[in-house]
Amino acid sequence: MTDLTNTRITLARRPQGAPVAEDFHVEQVAVPQPSRGELLLKMLYLSLDPYMRGRMSTAKSYAKPVEIGDVMEGGTVAEVIASNHADFKTGDIVLSHSGWQSYALSDGKGLRKLDPDAAPVSTALGVLGMPGFTAYAGLLTIGQPKPGETVVVAAASGAVGSVVGQIARIKGARAVGIAGGTDKCTFLRDELGFDVAVDHRAPDFAEQLKAACPEGIDVYFENVGGHVFEAVFPLLNTYARVPVCGLIAQYNQGGKAPSGPDWLPGFMREVLSRSLQIRGFIQYEFSDQRDTFLKEATGWIAEGRLRYREDVVEGLENAPQAFIGLLEGRNFGKLVVKVA
User: Fold this and answer.
1) 295-306 pLDDT tens trace
2) What does the pLDDT look like over 24-60, one tens digit per residue?
3) Inter-CA distances, 314 with 146, 216, 234, Å
4) pLDDT (tens digit, 9 = 90+) per residue, 251-261?
């Protein structure tokens, strides 16, 4: 192990607006050896997710930012290649949070063993991981879709949105997906079984969305914000529920208020008069549901009722450009980097 080299991608500087390649630094360091009670992990897959943009900023948030010079954080699937820990042996495959690097030491805390025979291990970062659980907990706990209701989800072809729409269908609701581009909309309808898919890039997007929701919107799962939410908001029914999972359209604003007219007074008036429930959440708030989620989601996958798509990027060195593309909507499915 002494001749191994660890490739690490660190935060070189805080982005001003959209991240660029110069905001990241790739470095090579020696791989440390595990001491007593430790194990050495070799990364197989790295998850890339929109929340990482917030970690690059010092704007007030629910988690601490990555410090300049520190390894970019992120979920990983790894193989144990050396172990001085009683609970893990060489060859174990684990879910960890080791960040953007090819090797890492661990004391075993926070690791979860994965069964490669149960499902492809990369799914632990997507449909059976944090994104899938985010969709499950946010939709069912906050959205509470009922049979016959209309559920609309933004970024519907992504890791979270694709699961939201499919679970809505499983629960008997009508699923309307919003995505960017013809290919993604076709995928939602033909592969995932959404009732309707609407392209937010279309010049008449708002009109198309209204036509797709003739009886209004009962649940809107928010991943985007921006012009998508502006088209959705007038269509929300009385007592509509809005789980707020992400606001990717605002992530590059650095916490600054957008320019333009102030529509907050009118917005709040409508929240009051229509008795709207708008609730932001972070998935770990519902951690007591995780075991139930894994059991149900695994069953739905086996039955063919829950499908997924992965967008796999080869090579850790390509993570920065892939992440930049993620924030621009260039990925198609759950974005993961195949590290090894």
Assistant:
1) 999 999 999 999
2) 999 999 998 999 999 999 999 999 999 999 999 988 8
3) 41, 42, 42
4) 666 555 566 77
Nearest to 175 by CA among 143, 147, 153, 202: 153
Residue type at position 274 = R
CA distances from 265 to 232, 269, 294 (A): 18, 6, 41
Name the β-bridge partners of 88: none
**Which secondary-structure segment (H or E) carries 70?**
none
Task: Find tokens 């450009």 and name the residue.
Answer: 321
In sequence order, what are the beta bridge partners of 336? Answer: 47, 312
Residue 205, Cβ neighbours under 10 Å: how many? 17
Name every residue whose Cβ is closer than 8 Å to that of residue 180 and which is 6 or more positions away in sequence.
199, 200, 201, 329
Q: What is the pLDDT of residue 287?
A: 95
The tally of CA atoms less than 13 A away on the side-chain side of residue 331 is 27
Quick check: 172 and 195 in contact, CB under 8 A?
A: no
How many residues are listed for the chain in this entry? 340
Residues 45, 30 contacting (CB under 8 angstroms): no
Region for 172 from its dihedrals, namely left if φ exceeds 0, alpha if ψ lies in -120 to 50, beta otherwise? left
CA distance linking residue 127 with residue 309, whole number of Å: 9
Compute and round to an integer the Cα radius of gyration of the chain: 21
- Overall average pLDDT of the 114-126 stretch: 95
β-pairing, 103-106 vs 39-47, is antiparallel
CB of 235 closer than 8 Å to CB of 218: no
Q: Write down the pTM of the prediction.
A: 0.89
Say how many C-beta atoms besides its own lie within 10 A of residue 56's C-beta: 22
Type of residue at 252: N
pLDDT number for residue 255: 53
**What's the rounded Cα separation, in Å, for the pair 200 and 180?**
6
